[in-house]
């Protein structure tokens, strides 16, 4: 049976941070599902860096259907979890169904890949305390407040947790996550 991987996201997620791991993990042979607050077509965004701006800009991105709603997810059916960034984590961290899903993965020590603003979700369930992580650099104070040791690096591996700063670091992020996956949940 092919190992399943769950991506949790919502509207305003960064397009590349959802679709790159979705396609890369499928290419590797995993069965990948996208869960959101409801089954619907999600509207992603593109975050980019423009000259003269102090922060990233946001433009409309791709749309993509959610395979299932958070309430339909059985975490026991999944070998690993991917948490993209964008603005979605800002409101998703308040979803009680999603918090149950996240807690289940952390309690079972299953592989988790998080990127950019995604660690706001794991911070919301107290999943970062005592761990080494990276995130979008502006989140360094949030990561420290969550009890994490923030490191400004392309990818940081702490056991089964693999974190990355943002989409420019995708290659390092997926390379490290696939190393963890191949050890914990190989494709059969």
- Tell me the radius of gyration: 15 Å
Shape: globular
Identify low-pLDDT runs. none
Determine the number of helices (DSSP H or I, runs of at least 4 residues): 6
What is the helix/strand order? EHEEEEEHHEHEHEEEH
Q: Which structural class matches the secondary elements?
A: alpha/beta
Intertermini distance: 6 Å
What fraction strand? Answer: 25-35%
Instruction: Tell me the number of strands.
Output: 11
Kindly report the average pLDDT value. 97
Structural account:
With 188 residues, the chain is an alpha/beta fold. The protein is 31% helix and 27% strand. The protein has helices at residues 15-28, 88-92, 96-107, 119-124, 140-145, 170-184, and strands spanning 4-8, 31-36, 41-48, 57-65, 68-69, 80-83, 112-115, 132-133, 149-150, 155-158, 161-164. The protein has a seven-stranded mixed sheet, sandwiched between helices. The radius of gyration is 15 Å and the shape is globular. 45% of the residues are buried.
Please give a handful of descriptors for the protein shown.
188 residues; Class_I_gatase-like; 7-stranded mixed sheet; C56_PfpI-like; two-stranded antiparallel sheet; single chain; alpha/beta
Please provide a brief summary of the model.
The protein is an alpha/beta fold and 188 residues long.
Architecture blueprint of SSEs:
Blueprint (H helix, E strand, L loop, with lengths): L3 E5 L6 H14 L2 E6 L4 E8 L8 E9 L2 E2 L10 E4 L4 H5 L3 H12 L4 E4 L3 H6 L7 E2 L6 H6 L3 E2 L4 E4 L2 E4 L5 H15 L4
Parallel strand pairs: 1-2, 1-6, 2-5, 6-7, 7-11, 8-9
Antiparallel strand pairs: 3-4, 10-11
């Amino acid at each position: 049976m092919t190992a399943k991987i769950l991506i949790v996201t919502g509207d305003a997620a960064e397009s590349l941070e959802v679709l790159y791991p979705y396609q890369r993990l499928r290419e590797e042979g995993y069965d990948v599902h996208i869960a959101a607050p409801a089954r619907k077509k999600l509207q992603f965004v593109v975050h980019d860096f423009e000259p003269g701006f102090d922060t990233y800009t946001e433009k409309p991105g791709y749309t993509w259907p959610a395979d299932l709603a958070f309430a339909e997810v059985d975490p026991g059916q999944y070998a690993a979890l991917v948490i993209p960034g964008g603005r979605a984590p800002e409101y998703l961290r308040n979803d009680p169904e999603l918090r149950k899903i996240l807690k289940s993965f952390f309690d079972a020590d299953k592989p988790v890949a998080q990127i950019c603003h995604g660690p706001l979700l794991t911070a919301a369930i107290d999943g970062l305390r005592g761990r080494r992580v990276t995130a979008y650099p502006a989140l360094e104070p949030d990561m420290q407040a969550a009890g994490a040791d923030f490191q400004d690096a392309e990818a940081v591996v702490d056991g089964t947790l693999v974190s990355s700063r943002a989409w420019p670091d995708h290659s390092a992020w997926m390379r490290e996550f696939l190393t963890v996956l191949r050890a914990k949940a190989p494709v059969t």
